[in-house]
Write a structure and sequence with these properties.
Blueprint (H helix, E strand, L loop, with lengths): L1 H47 L3 E2 L2 E5 L4 E10 L6 E12 L8 E20 L2 E2 L2 H7 L12 E18 L4 E15 L5 E10 L5 E9 L4 E12 L1 H7 L7 E15 L2 E21 L2 E17 L4 E10 L2 E6 L5 H6 L4 H8 L6 H13 L6 E18 L6 E12 L2 E2 L5 E10 L3 E9 L2 E15 L4 H8 L3 E15 L2 E15 L13 H8 L5 E5 L2 E4 L3 E3 L2 H13 L4 H18 E4 L8 H16 L4 E8 L1 H21 L9 H9 L5 H9 L9 H9 L1 H25 L6 E3 L3 E2 L7 E8 L4 H14 L2 H4 L2 H9 L1
Parallel strand pairs: 5-7, 15-17, 16-17, 29-30, 29-31
Antiparallel strand pairs: 1-3, 2-3, 3-4, 4-5, 5-6, 7-8, 8-9, 9-10, 10-11, 11-12, 12-13, 13-14, 14-15, 14-16, 17-18, 17-19, 18-20, 20-21, 21-22, 22-23, 23-24, 24-25, 24-26, 26-27, 28-32, 29-32
Helix pairs in contact: 10-17, 12-15, 12-16
Length: 783
């Protein structure tokens, strides 16, 4: 009986003990999660320096699983959120803690949002965390603690970056990250990540391998049309105005070391697409469709630069000169002052500056290295130059320009390349060159410029001489052979049929009697033909003008006896030209006396040939004509502001005074600048258009064309012949000779005076002085 009682008591004690233990475990299981939430939130500031909040915590003390819902970590100094996540999950290996190894077997962040703030260079909003959790020293007397963090994952994250000093705001989204993590006794961290551009389109993915001990790394990165909008924000601090856009494609594999930026080896390809940089989104200064580089191997430290190809497709570049500075300096400051200032400021970080330094650094030894480029090409380039610093706009373009080079190899004897381009509005250029890759002062160049109208340079000719040229074609070619910097070259300048136009009277223009110069410079065949050798060295070349001097002296003594021949040629050329075209000087609205005499010839021709008709094709140099109209109307508005009485009766005298007024008159310029409505108006054309308005310019130009048409028709109306004159729709283009004109075509038999002139000029062209240039004239006629 006592034995049975004892067993009963024992069972009861065991049952009570087990019940208590189960109850305690249940209580722990039920309350440990809220207790953990409470402890984390209560002591977060003490141990991390950051306030941490969450909606709910779940802790399983038996499995080591921990989950925090809606986790929020705040900034050290304020209530804004530094980091948040919809969920943070961790699996702890509890058994390993007994051996002083703390291991998180899995760490998962769901939809995290992080905010990185840069207050000044290297001063980030997480620096306090790095300082707090960095161990200043290691106590070797204690047994070591081991930490393992394994299987790290980030799902659908968003991370923001703010630079408070220069106001940069950027973010990436759809961030995914996976890594097997790192054990305490391993030096290597591997993983992969991907994300999308927060601004615009595009995505990027990469895998990596980093040795945290040696700082060696290896990565493979791919980018697909990744928007480079972040560069626009950094550019704002380098430029006074302007916009930028581009996207990136890349497939690169690189190995290297973080402590030595030269120690890297890169293979793969990258492309920058749809690049635009300029004044506004509608006014590019530079652009291209694609820049593609395919890299066989680049290793700056080992001086290896092996590229399979470098191609640039449809690049566009526009350089403009203004009264002050140019379009590049107005953006970046005089002599790049903005860039220099930002580069010198050590308190701020600028990604564009850092990228520039990086590219300069890795390419600085290119020409002293082992380099090869199998293919170099520029396709369909458009290079433009506009000069607004003269009294009228000068514009020229190389379009389309093609550049190609054979295999570029520092081991080759010579590297050959060629440039071929059209010249807008007229002309062409060809250049063939070769260079010694081991000696840049040894090269050969052959170039040829052809079919360029000399009237293209009238803005400069009028400014410096007051005389335009309304005929003439330039050809210029040369052959240079340079060895060790020593030049041997032949250069040939040929100007076919240059002719001086009527003087433009303007107070700002210099006056040089070009017609007198032409008497000395033109040969009997009405050409300027000079050979101009250049010798010496590249630093101090010597121009040899012997041929020029002898040619001028020859013209002084040889041309006078042949004056009659020259007069006969000019008379026949004038007859042919007037029979086929009627030139209109800028803003000319009435016919000159010589044009009226020609009208009488045309009327006599129509009267004598009842079946004959004349077709008129107006060729309008609208761009230049409108510029002249614009300048006149702007000066007129300024003139009337000081002479209001002229507004009631505007006389020929008033008009003449305005014509002679310089477009760069100091008082007029002050008047223009006073009425400027936008800070991006750099040219006098923009300022005048702002003052006058496009509608008035178009109206005046239209009225000018109507007046010309009426003036042309008036003589035929008085003879009852106007129904035999047929005007065709006008054509807007840039005439070869630099002036608007009427192209005249005849039906029926040609006029006798035209047939006679053709016959006589043919005879004259067959004579010795002009026969040598007969083929050249045929080429010009084809234009």
């Amino acid at each position: 009986m006592p034995m049975k009682l004892t067993n009963t008591k024992l069972k009861k004690s065991v049952l009570i003990t087990v019940t208590i233990l189960i109850s305690l475990l249940a209580i722990i299981f039920i309350f440990i999660s809220p207790i953990a939430k409470y402890l984390v939130e209560k002591y977060s500031v003490k141990y991390t320096g950051r306030r941490i909040k969450m909606d709910r915590a779940y802790v399983n003390p038996f499995t080591g699983y921990v989950h925090f819902s809606n986790l929020r970590i705040y900034e050290a100094t304020n209530d804004s959120i530094f980091f948040s996540a919809e969920g943070l999950s961790m699996d702890f290996e509890l058994r390993k803690m007994l051996s002083k190894t703390y291991e998180i077997s899995e760490l998962v962040l769901d939809k995290p949002t992080g905010i990185v703030i840069l207050n000044q260079r290297n001063d980030f909003n997480f620096n306090d965390l790095i300082t707090r959790f960095s161990s200043p020293s290691t106590d070797t007397t204690k047994p070591p603690l081991h930490f393992n963090i394994l299987n790290v994952k980030i799902n659908d994250g968003v991370f923001y970056f703010h630079d408070t000093l220069i106001h940069i705001d950027y973010f990436i989204k759809n961030v995914s990250f996976e890594s097997p993590g790192k054990k305490w006794d391993q030096d290597t961290v591997t993983g992969k990540f991907s994300f999308s551009a927060g601004i615009g389109t595009g995505d990027m993915e990469a895998n990596f391998n980093i040795n945290v001990k040696t700082l060696d790394y290896r990565y493979a990165i791919k980018a697909h049309q990744f928007n480079l909008a972040i560069l626009q924000q950094y550019l704002k601090h380098l430029i006074n105005y302007g916009t930028f856009s581009a996207n990136l494609d890349a497939d690169l594999k690189t190995t290297g070391n973080f402590s030595d930026e030269d120690n890297q080896d890169t293979k793969g390809r990258f492309a920058i697409n749809d690049f635009h940089f300029g004044k506004t989104r509608a006014d590019d200064y530079a652009s291209f469709d694609k820049f593609l580089m395919t890299i066989t191997e680049v290793n700056p430290k080992q001086h290896i630069y092996h590229l399979d190809s470098v191609t640039l497709t449809r690049p566009y570049f526009k350089y403009e000169k203004y009264d002050r500075l140019d379009n590049i300096e107005t953006m970046f400051g005089a002599n790049g002052a903005n860039v220099t200032a930002v580069d010198a400021d050590n308190t701020q970080y600028n990604l564009v500056i850092e990228l520039a330094h990086y590219l300069i650094n890795i390419s600085k030894n290119f020409f002293q290295s082992v380099y090869t480029i199998n293919k170099v090409a520029v396709n369909e380039a458009d290079i433009r130059f506009n000069d607004y610093s003269r009294n009228e706009e000068f514009s020229v373009a190389a379009k389309p320009l093609y550049f190609s080079a054979d295999s570029v190899n520092q081991g080759k004897g010579k590297i050959k390349f060629s440039v071929k381009s059209g010249i807008n509005p007229y002309g062409e250029m060809n250049l063939q060159a070769s260079i010694n890759p081991r000696d840049s002062a040894s090269f050969d160049v052959d170039f040829h410029f052809a079919k360029i109208p000399i009237s293209l340079f009238n803005p400069y000719l009028i400014t410096y001489t007051s005389f335009p040229l309304d005929r003439g074609t330039i050809e210029f070619n040369g052959a240079w052979k340079v060895r060790k910097g020593i030049i041997q070259s032949e250069n040939h300048l040929l100007i076919i049929d240059p002719r001086v136009g009527t003087r433009v009277k303007n107070k700002a223009d210099k006056w040089i009697p070009v017609w007198l110069l032409m008497a000395f410079m033109r040969e009997r065949s009405n050409v300027i033909d000079y050979s101009i050798p250049i010798t010496g060295d590249l630093k101090s070349p010597k121009l040899h003008l012997r041929d020029v001097v002898f040619s001028i002296l020859g013209n002084i003594f040889i041309k006078p006896p042949t004056t009659a021949y020259g007069v006969a040629v000019r008379n026949q050329e004038s007859t042919i030209e007037k029979s086929l075209t009627m030139k209109w000087a800028m803003r000319q609205s009435s016919m000159s006396h010589s044009q009226e005499r020609f009208m009488k010839k045309l009327a006599d021709y129509l009267s004598a040939n009842s079946n004959a008709r004349i077709f008129i094709y107006p060729q309008q140099y609208a761009m230049k004509e409108k510029e002249y109209v614009l300048f006149f109307e702007a000066k007129k508005k300024y003139y009337l502001s000081f002479h209001p009485e002229a507004g009631k009766v505007f006389s020929e005298s008033d008009s003449e005074k305005i014509d002679k007024m310089s477009i760069r008159d100091s008082m007029f310029m002050k008047y223009l600048n006073k009425h400027v409505s936008h800070y991006l108006m750099f040219t006098i054309q923009d300022k005048c258009m702002n003052l006058v308005g496009n509608a008035l310019v178009n109206s005046k130009f239209q009225k000018l064309n109507e007046t010309r048409k009426n003036a042309f028709n008036s003589y035929f109306k008085s003879k009852g012949l106007n129904d035999r004159i047929v005007f065709k729709p006008s054509k807007d283009n840039i005439p070869y000779n630099g002036f608007s004109f009427y192209k005249i075509e005849y039906t029926g038999e040609l006029p006798d005076f035209l047939i006679s002139a053709y016959k006589k000029i043919g005879e004259l062209n067959d004579e010795a002085p002009r026969e040598e240039y007969k083929k050249d004239r045929k080429k010009i006629k084809a234009i």
